[in-house]
Backbone:
């Protein structure tokens, strides 16, 4: 069963309610998107952050298990950047703690699989984000999937009573906004957009809320509209092709960049779907700035350490976060909507600018 929401975080918040979770501790990765923690707090529960595993991005499941107590309500397992959560270890954990719900956060990992098993199905429900930055998109939106018909029924009842319908004018405005911002991302407009961004003008529209505050966007209780829904449905059909393309691109980037001194690569993993192709360098901001001058935009995905953010320092934590902080400080992501030739140029520009990133 799949149920649509205006944001993944709205779905997550109402899912917690449908599961009867209130005043409970919810375990989640420290290395994840800030909105996941916000949705936990807004659902009346407490986030418990867990450091990343030694050689990857995903939550360390030993530390997660050690944090379980009588107040624990759920574990949000996330396949970060599309790298699948280790389902064998997660199964073993569930066997020892059958009362703790497992929620899969698949915002980065549509169709990712662990040894052939779909990550999405390994828990009571899965969260998907569908905004324009995601691998599959309905322009605006999110989705919760579950194999539990009764849970889905409860979730839909809560959704239908809580969400306000989006009027067609409001939806048209949203669609116009997205068309305009897509036009702004064409290469020609790109440099101009950068200038406007530096002047702080775009932030007024895009950041209509402050991510450092525990809050939800003002329209988070306005239902997904029909235009967004039909975009989402048509994206489903293109989806297997999109994933194959990402997997090929990851292989290509990996072969082009793995011998570059100063770049630390992550191994390619079977079943990973690469929402982001990421690597680590010593001085990522310098590399990003140097490459930008040559028209190559690298990203700094998750460059904040969630449990170190002021709004979260008062929440309990059972461990420290050295591995997460290292990822926050060193990870960059390469452009992912590119042709093979564009990827080769990206790799050349990165290689040429590595001196800047190691000083
Ligand atoms: C995008 C994202 C979500 C959901 O985000 P919304 O913007 O609320 O749709 C959840 N988890 C992760 C890891 C994400 O990147």
Residues:
């Amino acid at each position: 069963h799949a149920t649509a929401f205006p944001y993944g975080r709205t779905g997550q918040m109402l899912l917690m309610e449908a599961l009867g979770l209130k005043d409970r501790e919810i375990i989640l990765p420290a290395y994840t998107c800030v909105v996941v923690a916000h949705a936990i707090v807004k659902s009346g529960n407490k986030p418990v952050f867990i450091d990343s595993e030694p050689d990857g991005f995903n939550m360390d499941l030993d530390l997660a298990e050690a944090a379980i107590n009588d107040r624990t309500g759920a574990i949000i397992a996330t396949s970060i950047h599309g790298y699948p959560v280790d389902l064998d270890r997660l199964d073993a954990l569930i066997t020892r703690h059958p009362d703790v719900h497992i929620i899969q956060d698949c915002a980065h990992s549509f169709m990712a699989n662990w040894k052939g098993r779909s990550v999405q199905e390994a828990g009571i429900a899965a969260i998907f984000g569908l905004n324009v930055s995601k691998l599959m998109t309905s322009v605006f939106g999110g989705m919760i999937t579950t194999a539990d018909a009764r849970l889905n029924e409860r979730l839909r009842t809560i959704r239908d009573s809580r969400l306000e319908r989006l009027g067609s004018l409001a939806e048209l405005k949203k669609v116009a906004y997205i068309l305009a911002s897509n036009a702004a991302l064409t290469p020609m407009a790109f440099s101009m957009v950068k200038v406007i961004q530096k002047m702080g003008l775009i932030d007024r529209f895009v950041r209509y809320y402050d991510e450092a505050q525990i809050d939800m966007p003002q329209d988070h209780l306005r239902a997904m509209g029909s235009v967004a829904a039909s975009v989402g449905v048509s994206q489903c059909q293109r989806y297997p092709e999109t994933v194959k393309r990402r997997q090929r691109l990851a292989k290509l980037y990996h072969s082009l960049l793995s011998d570059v001194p100063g770049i630390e690569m992550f191994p390619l993993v079977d079943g990973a779907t690469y929402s982001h192709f990421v690597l680590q360098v010593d001085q990522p901001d310098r590399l990003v700035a140097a490459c930008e001058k040559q028209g190559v935009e690298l990203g700094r995905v998750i460059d904040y350490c969630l449990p170190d953010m002021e709004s979260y320092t008062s929440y309990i934590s059972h461990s420290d976060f050295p591995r997460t902080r290292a990822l926050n400080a060193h990870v960059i992501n390469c452009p992912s909507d590119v042709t093979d030739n564009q990827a080769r140029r990206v790799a050349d520009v990165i290689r040429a600018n590595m001196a800047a990133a190691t000083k």
Observations:
- The longest strand covers residues 72-78.
- The first helix runs from residue 8 to 18.
- The radius of gyration is 20 Å.
